[in-house]
Amino acid sequence: MGRAEKWKHHAALSLVVFLSFLYSAQSAKNPTYYYDQCAPSTCGNSVVRFPVGLNPLCRSAYISSSCENGSLYITEDEAPRTKYKVLDTMNDTVYARGYFMMVDVSLLGCDPIAPFLDQAWQRWLMAGNFLMSSDYKTGTFFNCTRAPDADMRGRLTEAPCLECGNTTNLCYFYDGYMDQIPNCRPFRVAMPSTMVNNFTGVGNLRRKLQEGFRVQWESPCGAACMLTQTSPGRCGFVDEDRNKGGEVCFCNSTVHQTSCSDGIIVSLGGAKSNKNIMIAGIVVGIAFVILGICYACVRRRRQIRLKIEARGQDEQALRRYLDNKNIPASIETFLENYAYGMPTRFSYKQIKRYSNNFSDKLGQGGFGSVFKATLPNGGIVAVKLLDETEQSETQFLNEVRTVGQIHHNNLVRLLGFCFQKSKRALVYEFMENGSLEKYIHRKNKPPSERLNWNQLYDIALGTARGIAYLHEECRSRILHCDIKPHNILLDKKFQPKVSDFGLAQLMNREHSHVTLSGGRGTPGYAPPEMWWKNYGPITEKSDVYSFGMVILEMVGGRRNFDADASKASEMYFPEWVYRHHVLHNGDGSASSNNSSSSSSSSSNNNSSEGNRFTGSKWNMCEGEEEEEMARKMELVGLWCIQFSPGKRPSMRKVVEMLEGIVGIEAPPVPFDATISQLGRPM
User: Fold this and answer.
1) What is the pLDDT of residues 420-460, one digit of tens each?
2) Per-residue confidence band for 223, with pLDDT thresholds at 50, 70 and 90
3) Which of 159, 452, 502, 505 would bridge with 395, disulfide CB 3.0–4.6 Å?
4) Is 241 in the active site?
5) Hey, how many other C-beta atoms are within 10 angstroms of the C-beta on 70?
6) According to the UniProt entry, where is the signal peptide (predicted)?
7) How many angstroms separate the CA atoms of 149 and 516, rounded?
8) How far apart are CA 617 and CA 607, in angstroms?
9) From the CB of residue 666, how many other CB atoms can be counted at a distance below 10 Å?
10) What distance in Å separates the CA atoms of residue 506 and residue 398, rounded to the nearest whole number?
11) Nearest to 666 by CA among 588, 604, 608
């Protein structure tokens, strides 16, 4: 088949597909179609219809509903990970009164409660036709491993904990919204107004909250449409995008505004006599549009090919650029799609002026240099001026589409960017204390550049929270792929923020791993599967490994691999830690209980260098509290660097370990037998 014949074949096929689509669209304009679509369905003993129908056409805007094991569940479209169970049996009585009870499913049973997402705080105060009854309020519970400071405690009310059984944690309540408190985990709950700041006599708080909260709805199409005995209709939406327009009343042969007897008919399309003319016109018009698009695509592809060839790129680089679906051919189009309304776009002239002609250099990275700059409002920012390479262009796109659209206390914030001809720059919030790297490698460091154990522990916990947010709480999971001390920045209060998303990968939630064309990350922090495929695919557990290597360097106050160590057994610090603090006590004797939790084992480790556990021989601990923090960090680090990805915990589990929500058992041998020194003479 020649090129011309192939073109004709594809054009004809496109027309057939379009005509089939048009026929289906016209069928959907029939009122009977909508009436049948919104027929009541059953879920257990409930009759399910508007405003909680299972069909998207037949439920309120902004929510989704599902039937699972005979129970009706509802989620809010902008926060689909939080699910609510409807407690009432839905019937005519419930629909007539206009409200029902529901409960957050994370409160059911005794599983840990998931922390809320900031942007979804107001979700049940007003969602579509729904609003929470005025008899109920939302508040924030905090589960704390350590008591907040006095000023913060003055704003909180002591409250029962939400866990089942006994707990040593301290729990507080705040009437309203509060984001985060150090060493505390927040939970957003709805409760009766009478309970707010008054927990006396409540008894089992979790059981009380399992009674749920009341949600009511108001709708122009309600009882008048569905509960009329003479001519009942069915409420719903004409468009599956329920954000467009309001709900209507579907009747047997017509569509009305509020009821089948209101006399107000809603038109679904043009007159029948004009239908054929309209269809013919649309078909001809679309055919020409398709031809025009095909011509434009071929022409555009040819222009890009000529442009890249003119720049001296070889054929392999050209094909990689054209075939990569993650990098749009037009970066301008990409910026319109991904950066609209997000970071501010600066001109190169502005960037140059704000940075005083790039005079104050803060550091050098793999893809460019970082400079200090001052905005017109006096705000201090950091400007990363990217090198003019293909790799830096990829990093530019990655940064804008990932960190440009997410916000978390432990992720560095992208404030703006510059894309002008060959110039690429990224503008970040300024981090006064620089990177973690300059503080944790302590050799010959003055005391002013050393962090105490409380600071180290808080940095580890904050970093874990930031990575967990990337893995679990974004619309698409984000794999950082380059976690290392240099990419963990510290603000003026030494709060950590994960930075540098140039190698990041987006992973749809229905996918379990990503495929990379080659290894990436930094040697010493990148997991084995990043370089050797036989260790498994690239998943979020790859970031867990890198975090484990970082936390062990924080404990040791040195790089994990030290070629200058006096003994071969001390060259690889993670193995030294495992040998001395897991397999044996500090004095070299065999450990009597290798599965004890950190809380019971720290006081039993006697170092040959003294009577107390030292955390490591390079970084002395003072007092039992510091010993416990060092022990926890060591065990968490050893769990994270397991060579087998399946043995590594999730970042959410890592956060819970560091917060003290779950105990930490001694990990198995984390190293590959062909690499490890374990079992060899010391």
Assistant:
1) 878 889 999 999 999 998 888 766 666 667 788 999 999 99
2) confident
3) 502
4) no
5) 10
6) 1-27
7) 46
8) 9
9) 19
10) 9
11) 604
CA dihedral angle for residue 171, residue 174, residue 178, residue 180, rounded to 10 degrees: -20
Residue 384 counted as an annotated binding residue? yes
Distance (Å, rounded) from C-alpha 298 to C-alpha 319? Answer: 15
549, containing H or E segment: helix 541-556
**Both ends of the chain: CA-CA distance in Å?**
72
| Structural Rg of the chain based on CA atoms | 30
Distance from C-alpha of 511 to C-alpha of 479, rounded to nearest angstrom: 13
User: Which tokens hold the place of 643?
Assistant: 């060579």
In angstroms, how far is CA 535 from the centroid of its own chain? 26
Query: Is 11:288 a contact under the CB 8 Å cutoff?
Result: no
Which residue in 468, 434, 431 sits closest to 658, CA to CA? 468
Our measurement of the distance from residue 105's CA atom to the centroid of its chain's CA atoms, rounded to an integer in Å, reads 20
Residue 298 to residues 81, 301, 303, 304, 483: CA-CA distances in angstroms? 42, 5, 9, 10, 41
In this prediction, residue 529 carries a pLDDT of: 84
- Does the pLDDT value for residue 256 go beyond 70? yes
* pLDDT at residue 679, rounded to an integer: 42
**In the block, residue with structure tokens 């003026």:** 492
pTM, to two decimals: 0.50
DSSP string, 307-362: HHHHTT--HHHHHHHHH-TTS-S-HHHHHHHHSTTSSEEE-HHHHHHHTTTTTSEE
**CA gap 312, 297 in Å, rounded:** 23
Give the Cα separation of 41 and 187 in Å (integer). 34
| CA 53/CA 39 separation, integer angstroms | 9
Provide DSSP, 17-54.
Answer: HHHHHHHHHHHTTSHHHHHHHT--EEETTEEE-TTB-S
DSSP 258: S
DSSP per position, 594-649 = TT--HHHHGGG---TTSSS--SBTTB---SHHHHHHHHHHHHHHHHHT-SSGGGSP
Structure tokens at 469: 């947010």
What's the residue count for the chain? 682
Which residue has 């926890």 as its token pair?
632
Instruction: State the catalytic residue, choosing from 104, 458, 482, 500.
Output: 482
Contacts of 33 (CB under 8 A, 6+ apart): 27
Backbone angles phi, psi at 588, to 5 degrees: 95, -10
Is residue 464 classed as helix, strand or coil in its secondary structure?
Answer: helix
Bridging pattern class, strands 414-420 and 248-250:
unpaired
Alpha-carbon distance 662 to 278, whole Å? 66
Cβ within 8 Å of residue 436, ≥6 positions away? 459, 485, 486, 488, 489, 490, 496, 550, 554
Q: Which of 73, 76, 95 is nearest to 84 (CA)?
A: 73
On the question of pLDDT at 9 being above 60, the answer is no
Q: Where are the beta strands (DSSP E) in 160-308?
A: 170-174, 184-192, 213-217, 234-236, 248-250, 255-256
Instruction: Name the amino acid, one letter, at 44.
Output: G
Task: Give the contacts of 626 (CB within 8 A, at least 6 positions apart).
Answer: 453, 615
Compute φ and ψ for 85, nearest 5 degrees.
Answer: -100, 130
Instruction: Please state, in angstroms and rounded to a whole number, the distance separating the CA atoms of residues 240 and 298.
Output: 34
CB atoms within 10 A of CB 554: 26
